[in-house]
Each structure stands twice: as C-alpha cells, then as structure tokens.
Amino acid sequence: MQLFLSSVIEHSIDFEHVEKLEKIIDFEKNYILQTFYKIKSGDEKYQEMSKGFMMDSGAFSVMNSRKQAQKFNALEYTKKYAQYIKERNIKCFIELDIDGVFGIQTYIDCLHCLQDITGTEPLRVWHKRRGFKYWVELVKKYDRVCIGGIAVKDLLLDDEKTFNFLISTAHKNNCKVHGLGVGSAKYIRKYDFDSTDTAGWLSSMQFGKVHKFNGREVNSYTTDEINPENERLARRFSGIYALKEWERFARYCDTF
Prior knowledge:
Layout: E1 2-6, H1 21-24, E2 31-35, H2 44-49, E3 52-56, H3 59-63, H4 66-70, H5 74-88, H6 99-102, H7 104-118, E4 124-126, H8 132-141, E5 144-147, H9 160-172, E6 176-179, H10 185-190, E7 195-198, H11 203-207, E8 209-213, E9 218-222, H12 231-253
Parallel strand pairs: 1-2, 1-7, 2-3, 4-5, 5-6, 6-7
Antiparallel strand pairs: 8-9
Helix pairs in contact: 5-7, 8-9
C-alpha cells in the first residue's frame, strides 16, 4: 500500500531555520502529494526527488475559503493547473471535483479543459452524492480512481459496509483505489486501499501533539510542556519529529 505524505512540500519554509527539507525525510523513498493551490517556486526539485508524486488541484482548499470561493474562476484556475501539469510532465494528477459547489456543467467544462491541455486523463474522484452506480462505471472504465469526501466527513471512515463495497467492487474490475485525505493510521491499516494520502503529521504543529510510530501505527500524545515563549519554535521541532515518524509508518505501509 502506497502512503502519500501530503502538505510536506507546502510547509518546507517552516523548517528552513532547522534543516533543509530533503535532509529531514528521504524523498527517494517516499510518495508525496502536493496541492497546486499552494505551489511556489523551487517546489519542482522535491517533485523530481520523490519515489512517487501526485498532484492535487487544490480545489478543496479554495472551496473551504469563503473569501477565495467568492472570486474563484474555475475555468481559469483549471487552465493554469493544466498548463503546469503539461509543462512539468506530471503523470499522476487529480481532477477538480467541484460539482458539489459549482454545479455539474462547470465540473464538465473544467474536466474537458484539463483533458484538452494535458492530453491525458486525470484521476477521477467519486463522492457519495454521485451514487454507487457511478462508482461502478468509474471502476470499469479506469485503472485507478479516488474516493473523496473523507476529509470533510461526507463519507465516514467507520462506514465499513460502504468502504468494503467500494474497494471490493473496484478490485474485481482490476481498478486501484486511492483514499483521499484518510488521515488516520488506524483507517489506513483497516481498509484494503491501494494508496492513500495523509497530512496527519501536521496536527503536531497545529495542536502541540507528539507523534510516535509503534511498529504498526502512529499514535499521538497531548503535551502541555511547551514553553509559551518558544511555542512557535517548539511546534516546528515537533512537526519535524512527527514527519519523521509518519515517514517510518509510510515505509511500514509499503509492506502490505
């Protein structure tokens, strides 16, 4: 199972005062997911270093920002995204699954734009609102598809019946399944995903938690021992430690 570590490249600047990102984790041994929404100059070197690289459109981030969503031009954003994909010759990239906010026609227009500019097919994303019939259509047509809506809890990870159906149906049709934003080591191990992505390590900086890989999964522990005067620095060091622990978990995931 391939575990893509996400939000890593996006936060490289947070670690520069300590160490260069490529010295914190071994990109040549890691699968990395990056969002186009937060792309910046110099990120290309990390993309090229990675064992496997996946690009996300970042549409989810836009739709969760009221300020950004109000002025968001989906088609213009798609053109920029597609052009970047083409210029960088990125093989694995995700469509803009924006129909839930902008409607089905805008989604179709953006999909066709993405296909036309890149000359290839993006990874398709299934949402529960699309229905199970559409899932069956996708897994029969494509060799890899994504399950969306997990991070925003439109689809609950405790819904074993649904996940087992989705994954088993895909595998019967020789289609691989990527779980978008699964996040929790518990559920990454629970289901037979072919790949997932997670930014779970980030909670170390956001909430001051300590992360530790125990040989099977990553556990987090709350601490109140951070010195308020050095809180920002302490959280950054916590983030580095957490990222390394999730890297260890990712290597473990390679074994099943």
